[in-house]
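User: Okay, second chain of the day. Same drill as before: sequence in, structure tokens out.
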Amino acid sequence: MSTHRGSVPCFNWSWADGTSTTTIYYHNTCDTTQHLCVWWKDGQENNLHRITAAADEKGHLKEPGTIKSQDIENC
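Assistant: Same drill. Structure tokens below.
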């Protein structure tokens, strides 16, 4: 199992490879509410999840499938 870490403007994030579900952990490092878009692949289907996080908020989101790591960005 591999752990992935990264950052985009206003967010630090990490997640580990899952089998049936994957959880992404995030931290909004900006002083305003921001949005993070994460693409999940569940079977043949790709799903966009938009996370809204208040200033300095930390949290996580668990969904079925795996994360497409190249598709994590501010939105």
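The beta strands are 3-8, 11-16, 21-28, 34-42, 45-53, 58-64, 66-74.

User: Thanks, on to the next one.
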